[in-house]
Design a protein that fits this description.
alpha/beta; Rossmann fold; seven-stranded parallel beta sheet; 6 helices; globular
Length: 201
Amino acid sequence: MKVLLIGHTGTLGKILFEGFSRMSEVELVTASRHSGDFQVAIDEVSSVKALFAAVGQVDAIVSAAGSTVFKPFTDLAPADIQQSIASKLQGQVNLALIGHPYVTDGGSITLTSGIIKEAFIPEGTSSALVNGAIESFVASAAVEIGRGIRINAVSPNALVGSWDAYAPSFRGFIPVGDAPVFAAYEKSVFGIMTGQTFKVW
């Protein structure tokens, strides 16, 4: 199985990279903005098109890419919202829209949302907006995508690996470890469900 992992260098991406690398049946191909087997800027259509033209056919696309702006609501500007949309939302949508013709029949696409969609934190409004949109996109796209391709999202809580940096924003949350996080992506890639958001809370 050929798995294309976009965004393998961050805390989440490293969990996925290590997990898929341990699977003998997986041929793992990596891509990120500055490193990996291929380089891609997911917010640029031309870059995403070039990525898939170079990689060719895959059995699964897994995205751990994209970022959002964290600011108090009263400081948020339209440009901040647009930055979040362009990176985490439009970027991942680009991967699905441009990438699905390269996915084999019965293959899968997995995007990443996040707990902030419904468990709100200070300065998290733009992230909540983007995460909710990703989950709605996945639910609707699953109905139309065709060829037996499955498309899901994974919504992780704050991660143990980045807890020191994010704990002040996630007071009262219990961070999740590597194993349950990877299991959700494994379920999306190897399972039978589609149009779902797998919560890891």
